[in-house]
Amino acid sequence: MEEPVKITISAVLSALENGFTRNAGDKNYLGEGKSIGEMYNLNKTQVALLFKNEKLKGKKTKVAQTPAFIIVDEEDSLQIDLEDSIEEVTETANIITNELVEEEASPDWLAE
What are the residue boundaries of the structural domains of the chain, listed by start? Predict the structure, then answer.
């Protein structure tokens, strides 16, 4: 006769926190070896008995939700674009101003 498997409450709760389901094939099942039943080699009836324990009753798998969207704050985006544009305009204005100052410092008509 096989020795009974020792299962701790904390191990089962930890497995649920890490996304393990009760049985293979349950909703949100993550794949081979990612269920409590597979972890302890239990059938569905044994898993059901396990979860009748007072400390495990009603406990569910924690599902990591990944959002299907990315939130973009237009005001921040516009602010960054505006700052970049101002910087580009300022650089261009400085270049033009420096060229004009150089031309005025040595006008062509004086060279004649």
Answer: 1-64, 74-111
